């Protein structure tokens, strides 16, 4: 049996994950591809999740290395450079979509070793987007930078899925120019109208640290704040004292249930559904329910 290095196992796993995806690839297949026993893989990687983390990290690192090189060799305008970055991003993510895109639907997103890696990559990607937006549009976008950044990220993500899964494929180049054209219009409009920002640095920090202990504490604080706003809204309830009393009792039950270490999800959903019948409370309760139930998933 040949002696195989850790890097050779990673290289084999990289190709198999790229071709078949995480779920469809087994440690046995990786071992066979390397002509080694299955146990030899576990000498280096305790689990398939650990091996995927290594592959994911190398795939992202290669992306940033190539994106940096593209930026250094760009000779056009900043806007042309941004278009080329979007084109490259889509080309790369399409090629490695089973590693870089499909993982979001997999159980590995809950893996303790994977979450810090994902947050690191997310932070690096957001910093990359932010730097490009400032380079193209200048300091005048700083008052609403975080909003523009999240809008840009959402557009990039959604159009990548359209390119991947539309029956009639979209042109990558046309899509890149379309996105930048819309960013132009949005940045110009927000600058001209003095658009009030909705998001700030704290929104950005919470996003890139999602899943951390600090993030969980912030979610708990947000849930408490929303519950308090629902309670305050009922203090000045204009639609009858009997109805207000019923709603206050439900809110009290909801608060008590939220405080439990193990949530009864059907009960939470039922209590929220009762409160959502009132239009004045609906938005607050929907936000509260989303925070409470998602943070325990």
UniProtKB/TrEMBL annotation:
Domain HTH tetR-type positions: 3-63
DNA-binding region extent: 26-45
Record bears the keyword DNA-binding: yes
SUPFAM superfamilies named among the record's database cross-references: Homeodomain-like
Chloroplast found in the keyword field: no
Any Pfam family matching the protein: TetR_N
Keywords: DNA-binding
PANTHER family: ACREF/ENVCD OPERON REPRESSOR-RELATED, TRANSCRIPTIONAL REGULATOR, TETR FAMILY
Protein name in the entry: Transcriptional regulator
